[in-house]
Write a sequence for this structure.
């Protein structure tokens, strides 16, 4: 799959840069064309001469010198994929902010191809909230982030922050490129986040869903070439990734209307935590505190998944989510059948780090033919990839 592919590697100043010559050699061996840009700091960790010899192409570091100007726009357009590896904390912050004070950053900002980043840093830097924010920003801009590994670090400490090994980067690039066009021509519908059911002008019934899983799924579908509509409830996520049409909704009924208007999907993944009940009466004015108790009358909302299941054509793949606190498997199977879904993703609440809010999740897939596929705790981006892989196999 790598034969003839054009891979642009951006190297930044981190000790993990020593792994990149091996990656370049592996890529060239597999028939890829490789070009390398690096920051001046990176050149202190790995020699441009080693890299240019292995890549069989000139390694570029500076935007311009006395006699020439490096065409970063052409580089960003030349590549099928740009991999920034290792991605240092410094370059991460600059990429997140849109800074452009070297050739690598200028190339990143002009790249029309997908961009992958493989961070490398010490554990404390990796866990710093600013790093998390910057990574979330990059993901929201469509950059795929290869998670760091646990192990020995340059500081002598042992922890999270090691860049993936060259073989892993090779495998990642291979499957990334194989998947880029796998869903071209397909229409996908995704729901994400909670719904807010108004009680009065200032209060609502809601839930803790962050929307991260649904946004990750929408991003992954778009990355594989699908035309994606994401119907999102109220979340703190500012935007969806490139190639995703974002429709914002607030209540279950608004979400349902938006979904039913897009029922000509090939793949629908309903990851939203839709309220099952909504107030029968919404007060026009703020409800004043008076009696000791207050009773709200609620009625059932329309079940979007069940309605789409009822009208599903046999070329459509419909996927539901379930979050259970007891009898997880039995309830998951029941939901799958009752709502006529093709696949049901069971979220675990039992594992620490899985479920609402966080950046990781642990899921088990339930198929119509009775098969079950459990996965370990992984980043929500990786979980999205696993789920889309499973869905791709179900497309007729
Ligand atoms: N769902 C939906 N519309 C609703 C309620 C749920 O589309 N009004 C979808 C969710 O997006 C999810 C699946 O149905 O994909 C399961 O949701 P869940 O709340 O776990 O199931 P319920 O059927 O509501 O069952 P219960 O709350 O009793 O577990």
């Amino acid at each position: 799959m790598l034969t003839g592919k054009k891979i642009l590697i951006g190297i930044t100043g981190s000790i993990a840069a020593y792994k990149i010559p091996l990656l370049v050699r592996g890529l060239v061996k597999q028939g890829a064309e490789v070009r390398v840009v690096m920051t001046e700091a990176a050149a202190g960790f790995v020699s441009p001469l080693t890299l240019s010899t292995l890549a069989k192409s000139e390694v570029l570091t500076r935007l311009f010198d006395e006699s020439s100007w490096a065409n970063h726009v052409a580089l960003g357009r030349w590549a099928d994929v740009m991999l920034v590896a290792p991605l240092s904390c410094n370059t991460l912050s600059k990429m997140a902010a849109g800074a452009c004070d070297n050739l690598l950053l200028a190339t990143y900002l002009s790249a029309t191809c997908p961009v992958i980043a493989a961070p490398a840093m010490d554990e404390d830097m990796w866990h710093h909230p600013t790093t998390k924010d910057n990574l979330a920003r990059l993901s929201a801009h469509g950059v795929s982030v290869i998670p760091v590994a646990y192990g020995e670090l340059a500081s002598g400490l042992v922890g999270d922050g090691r860049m993936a090994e060259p073989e892993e980067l090779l495998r990642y690039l291979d499957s990334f490129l194989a998947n880029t066009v796998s869903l071209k021509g397909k229409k996908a519908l995704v729901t994400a986040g909670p719904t807010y059911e108004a009680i009065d002008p200032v209060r609502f019934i809601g839930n803790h869903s962050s929307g991260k899983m649904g946004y990750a799924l929408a991003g992954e579908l778009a990355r594989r070439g699908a035309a994606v509509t994401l119907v999102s409830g109220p979340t703190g996520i500012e935007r969806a990734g490139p190639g995703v049409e974002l429709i914002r909704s607030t209540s279950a009924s608004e979400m349902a209307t938006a979904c039913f208007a897009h029922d000509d999907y090939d793949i629908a993944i309903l990851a939203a935590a839709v309220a099952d009940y909504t107030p029968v009466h919404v007060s026009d004015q703020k409800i004043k505190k008076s009696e000791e108790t207050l009773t709200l009358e609620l009625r059932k909302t329309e079940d979007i998944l069940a309605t789409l299941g009822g009208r599903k054509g046999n070329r459509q793949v419909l996927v539901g989510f379930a979050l259970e606190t007891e009898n997880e498997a039995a309830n998951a199977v029941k939901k799958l059948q009752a709502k006529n879904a093709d696949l049901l993703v069971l979220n675990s609440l039992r594992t620490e780090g899985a479920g609402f809010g966080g950046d990781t999740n642990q899921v088990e897939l339930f198929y119509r033919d009775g098969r079950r596929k459990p996965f370990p705790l992984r980043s929500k981006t990786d979980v999205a990839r696993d789920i889309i892989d499973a869905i791709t196999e179900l497309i007729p």
In short: The two ends are 24 Å apart (CA to CA). The domain at 187-394 is CATH 3.40.50.10300 (Rossmann fold). The chain has a mean pLDDT of 92.
